[in-house]
Amino acid sequence: MIWFARFMLSTLVLFWFSALVRAIRSRRDERYRATEDTPGPEGNPRVALVVPARNEERNIAGLVEGILQQDYENITTVILNDGSTDRTGELLAAHHHEKNLNILEGGGGPLPDGWLGKAWACQRGAKFHIESDQPPEWLLFVDADVRLHPHAVTGVLGHAQRNELAMVSGLGNLVMESFWEKLLQPVVAGLIMAGNDLEKINDPENQDDRPLANGQFILVRRDAYEAVGGHGAVRADVLDDVGMASAITGAGFPYHLIFMRTLFDCRMYASFGEIWEGWTKNMFAGMRHSWLNLIIVMCFLAWIALVPYLLCGWGLATGNTEWAIWGGGIATLIQLVRLWLDIQVGQDIRYGPTQPIGVTLVLMLLFHSGIRASRGTAEWKGRVVPVIKPESNPELLDDDSIQA
């Protein structure tokens, strides 16, 4: 059995060494990246920005500031106050006078049957633009906790046009300020990226049927959006961003997921409670609502990212030098990968040694997400979110509840 254990540990060495190589290579690959130096599009296509905002009082000021500072001029924005119970509506009201910035009120009543809140808000915001006197050529959906850099719209439009794409989603700069963010968010982000190869996501010949996307920033051509039924296609999908990418690619439209770290910032969660509830809502959906997938991912994560630390500790505690060396060597490789990534994204490198603690908490979070999904619901921003398998709806529904 000793030889088998050594063989398995050798596979871990190869796994983490290849992970380090891939991490270095991906950061040097400019094909799937938009920056402040990315040229803009030819012509002047009209862009409509849609922002659903529910209980976002801490984010509204930065959101509006980023929108107003865009260096792309042919853009109109709608921010929909989605039934907020905090000061979001009051803060938005102060910006009614801004040029090309429309503030809508809606979402105070019950959601339509089968719809989740964010999808319904995005649907109404898109409908406002599409039915305007000057319908846009592109729709850009941005979360309210995003801070757009001035070149964000210009850069991503340029990338989309040059690559003849119908949809682009971006991975921005993840802002982490509190202890729990710095402990947990890098581990979750690493888990997501480890399971999604950017080369495969952006290759129409090899794309998965559920390609990764980031709902913080989604640019989609209007004709493609309407062709798949708008957000009606993802009305019951907890992962509406992945669902939209699936609908777009499933209809034969080309799609890219790109790095946009210098073009927008996003602080997803500010506290342990927000992190726990936010990822509880998303993780089981990310496992395709499958307990088998969840268990496989949990076992794999524990094996590659937790066992080496435990083996090193056990070897030191029992005086078994061989196992201490095996575990310590693999743990060192893990720390090198983490250090490289932390430096690249500007994360506090002092949190690298907390990796095994973060992994343990993420394993608990994965299991908790499965339990909550089995009970049928999760909660987010004061709404109960039914955790069910999504069903597509190709219809763009009418809505008379929007008030400018």
Please work out how many helical segments DSSP would assign: 14
Written as H for each helix and E for each strand, in order along the chain, the element string is HEHEHEHEEHEEHHEHHEEHHHHHEE
Strand order of the largest sheet: 3-2-1-4-8-6-9
Structural class, from helix and strand content? alpha/beta
Number of DSSP E strands: 12
Report the sheet with the most strands, covering strand number, pairing sense and barrel closure. Answer: 7 strands, mixed
Straight-line distance between termini: 71 Å
CATH class of the largest domain: Alpha Beta
Structural domains: how many: 2
Quaternary organisation:
single chain
Protein topology:
Elements: H1 2-28, E1 47-53, H2 60-68, E2 75-82, H3 88-93, E3 101-106, H4 117-130, E4 138-142, E5 146-148, H5 152-162, E6 167-171, E7 173-174, H6 179-194, H7 198-201, E8 217-221, H8 222-227, H9 240-250, E9 255-259, E10 264-266, H10 272-286, H11 291-305, H12 307-318, H13 321-345, H14 355-375, E11 377-380, E12 383-386
Parallel strand pairs: 1-2, 1-4, 2-3, 6-9, 7-10
Antiparallel strand pairs: 4-8, 5-10, 6-8, 11-12
Helix pairs in contact: 1-13, 6-14, 10-14, 11-14, 12-13
Describe this entry's structure for a reader.
The structure is a single chain. The protein has helices at 2-28, 60-68, 88-93, 117-130, 152-162, 179-194, 198-201, 222-227, 240-250, 272-286, 291-305, 307-318, 321-345, 355-375; strands spanning 47-53, 75-82, 101-106, 138-142, 146-148, 167-171, 173-174, 217-221, 255-259, 264-266, 377-380, 383-386. The protein is an alpha/beta fold. It has two domains: 2-27 and 285-385, no CATH class; 34-176 and 196-269, Spore Coat Polysaccharide Biosynthesis Protein SpsA, Chain A. Helix 3 links the parallel strand 2 and strand 3 (101-106). The radius of gyration is 22 Å and the shape is globular. The termini are far apart. Mean pLDDT is 90; it is low at 392-404.
